[in-house]
């Protein structure tokens, strides 16, 4: 309901993922609940979800319904998360705004006269507007970091190949100029703890088995909690 309300105001959702209720009923019957049990998760448009398109904001991809979930969606479901909407992006996703000729312009919920940033702009707008508490974006040159900044959120661009991008969700994924810098998937949320929980959930045996090209290195809580002491300010020379 909240997602619908936010979408009416800022136009950030491109599709509602069917089967959410069925998935929740299955999860209730499982003994192992998973780290993301029952959490609705929004998914950037280009990440493949079974039975849905990954448009990249381009008309040529509108007829191509995906036959399987991408690895990241499979892992989110394995951990009890419920992908429930797909969110808007700029056309081709090589852009720091968030509009295309199919779904139109996404607005910033903090100020509708401003852009939410891009290319994970629909994610930024939906989470900032209160329609989602955790989302999956992607970043090559700022596409998680910019909308997180524009919308007052937390976002993480993980190290390249830390999280599976298989099968390639990006409709721009085969372009050599994109591959010069590794594109990565990563979480967006309202606080750092949510990002850490999501990374901990994703970096699991399920992902390492589904995509053997990902180094099987689990999340290290100690590294996250290791605070760097602030050095005292340099005394001014008199």
Automatic annotation (TrEMBL):
Pfam assignment, any one: Amidase
Keyword Cell inner membrane recorded: no
Amidase domain boundaries: 5-220
Stored InterPro entries: Amidase_CS (IPR020556), Amidase_dom (IPR023631), AS_sf (IPR036928), Endocannabinoid_amidase (IPR052096)
GO MF term list: amidase activity; fatty acid amide hydrolase activity
GO biological process: fatty acid catabolic process
Assigned keywords, A-Z: Hydrolase
Family: Belongs to the amidase family.
Protein name per UniProt: VDHAP protein
Organism field: Molothrus ater (Brown-headed cowbird)
Name of the gene: Vdhap
